[in-house]
Amino acid sequence: MKHCPTCNRSSDEVRFIGEFCEVCVAEKASRGMKEFATISQCRSCGRIRTPEGYAELDKKPLGDAIKHSLKLGPRYGLKVLEYDNLGVKVRFNYEVEDGERVTFERRVRFKKTHEMCTDCFRRRSGYFEAIVQLRGDKFLIGKMFERIRAYMDKHGAFVAKAEEHQFGVDVYLSDKSVANEFFKERDLKPERSYVLFGMKKGKRLFRNIYALKL
Predict the structure, then answer these.
(1) Per-residue pLDDT tens over the stretch 64-106
(2) How is residue 18 annotated by DSSP?
(3) 29, 58, 158, 185: which one has the fewest Cβ atoms less than 10 Å from its Cβ?
């Protein structure tokens, strides 16, 4: 039988990891952990910032944001069990050594900071990377416009604006890569051209222009 040198618990009472009981190992793993996590939330759409980007406020993204804010290393896994406006209940899964793990639960309070995510900023500023020039039958133009808008919304992009002309509609899109996928999936082959609109880190930036006859 072992006795923990820290708390004197015996191996008959709790599991031991090395020379120490799992209770003391868990306490050591949580010692020094910050009491507060800082969560950045978009003031417009309500999504939170995670290391992978902005995501809807839910348990998994919230756990990723908390782990990043607390600066926990790779030995720490965590799962958010429940949350409210003041904090979260978290189950931590800590790797001690040689594959041995210990779990413990802790309530972590968080402070929210508010900012504007990239997508919302682009929407407000009218940002666009591509223009689709729809020409031809008015009914078909209307149907294609709705398909484009629905596809943009589904894939995290948006229609910045639409301008009607005598012979059709120009649709301004926020993401040219999503626009490319739209045409590819539907086997559409618009005429393509490009226009330079700026520089970023020494690289030229182009807007795509698609001319589609319907």
Answers:
(1) 999 999 998 888 999 999 998 878 999 999 888 777 889 899 9
(2) T
(3) 185
Give the tokens for residue 132. Answer: 């689709």
Nearest by Cα to 167 from 199, 128, 140: 140
DSSP three-state, residue 199? strand
Question: Do 96 and 25 contact (CB within 8 A), yes or no?
Answer: yes
User: Which amino acid is residue 29, in one-letter code?
Assistant: A
Straight-line distance from the first to the last Cα atom of the chain, in angstroms, rounded to the nearest whole number: 82
Q: b/e string for 52-83 if b means 16 or more Cβ within 10 A?
A: eebeeeeeebbbbbbbbbbebeeebebebeeb
Q: Is the pTM of this model over 0.85?
A: no
Residue 30 is predicted with a pLDDT of 87
Number of C-alpha atoms within 13 angstroms, CB side, residue 178? 21
Burial of 44 by CB count in 10 Å (0-12 exposed, 13-18 middle, 19+ buried)? middle
